[in-house]
Specification:
Layout (H helix, E strand, L loop, with lengths): L5 E5 L3 E7 L13 E8 L1 H11 L3 E9 L2 H13 L2 E8 L5 E7 L6 E6 L8 H6 L1 H4 L4 E4 L5 H13 L3 E4 L9 H4 L4 E2 L3 H7 L10 H9 L5 E5 L5 E4 L4 E4 L12 H14 L4 H15 L12 H10 L12
Helix pairs in contact: 1-9, 7-8, 9-10
């Protein structure tokens, strides 16, 4: 029987306010839209929920506003079984929001994002959650929060012997002190180029990107490649793991599902290659449904997929 594992996610929560419109408004113009909806979002929140759905005990460290959207976040964590002890409501800023206009035919979109309370998450706040970090098997963070908070999460996780995972999204240049405490860095190709100061339009092989990223300090690099899968690299290994073949409905949450699958597998002690094999399944299953949180797969869905295609279920999953 597998042991329970504990993952601490340090990250963001935001609400997506989405509307479909045939054309984007010009300055001073009002256009009619349809299909308005509000969605849970924020990479940190998505990944925390994704880990919980895969059977892990999850603690989330974040900042939200004292407003209805903040209450919406807390309701999500109660429903999904995410420990929100370290999700603090603040009065100074509202909960983060994104205003999203989407053209229904082309899928083209434009987005305005206010990080709100996410910008208030600081290294000191991460230090206050050390009681959770001290028992973590994996500490997972992203860059929708201040770099200082992400840096503190990686440093504290490393100090307590956890596996540290940084999903550098949205990408920005990072000081060496951040990457030196990262066990596994998980950029996509564009994020990898930004971290390396390459032009986003440059055609660079994933193996080269991974080799260059390793020189910045992380122990391992996993470059996600969308429908191609992922490329794994460390000092001794460099290989591509193919994606699973599924009908793509909405790719929005694939990266968050991938990172959740990776974190849970690593927490159970499997090696990096086996963890990425699971992550490409969780990421692939997420694209088969609309939305982000609704599409994050549950452990039963992953096991059913493995059984259907003769992949063999992970040994650690049998007790869940």
């Amino acid at each position: 029987m597998s042991r329970d594992v504990h993952i601490v996610v340090v990250g963001s929560f935001a609400v997506g306010l989405t509307m479909k419109t045939d054309q984007f408004p010009s300055a001073g113009e009002t256009v009619l839209g349809s299909g308005y909806r509000t969605d849970h979002g924020g990479k940190g929140s998505n990944q925390a929920v994704g880990c919980a759905r895969l059977g892990a005990k999850v603690s989330f460290v974040a900042r939200i506003g004292k407003d209805p959207f903040g209450e919406m976040a807390l309701g999500l964590y109660r429903e999904e079984g995410v420990d929100a002890t370290w999700v603090r409501q603040v009065a100074e800023r509202p909960t983060g929001v994104g205003f999203i206009l989407v053209k229904p035919v082309s899928g083209e979109n434009c987005i305005a994002l206010d990080p709100g309370a996410n910008d208030l998450l600081a290294a000191a706040d991460v230090a206050e959650s050390e009681a959770a970090l001290a028992s973590a098997d994996v500490v997972l963070t992203q860059l929708e929060i201040p770099v200082g908070a992400a840096e503190a999460a990686m440093a504290c996780g490393r100090a307590h012997g956890a596996i540290t995972v940084l999903n550098p999204a949205p990408a920005r240049p990072l000081p060496p002190a951040v990457l030196e405490n990262v066990d596994i860095l998980t950029p996509n190709k564009v994020e990898a180029k930004v971290l390396l100061a390459h032009r986003p339009e440059e055609e660079i092989d994933p193996s080269q990107l991974a080799r260059e990223l390793l020189q910045l300090g992380p122990r391992n690099v996993v470059v996600t490649l969308g429908e191609r899968g992922a490329f794994i690299a460390n000092r001794a290994l460099g290989r591509e793991v193919p994606a699973i073949r599924v009908p793509a409905v909405d790719t929005t949450g694939a990266g968050d599902a991938f990172n959740a699958g990776l974190a849970v597998a690593l927490a159970h002690g499997v090696d990096l290659e086996a963890a990425v094999n699971l992550a490409v399944i969780t990421g692939g299953l997420a694209v088969t449904k609309d939305g982000v949180v609704p599409a994050l797969p549950r452990l039963g869905e992953v096991l059913a997929y493995c059984e259907r295609y003769g992949l063999g279920e992970p040994k650690w999953a049998r007790s869940h």
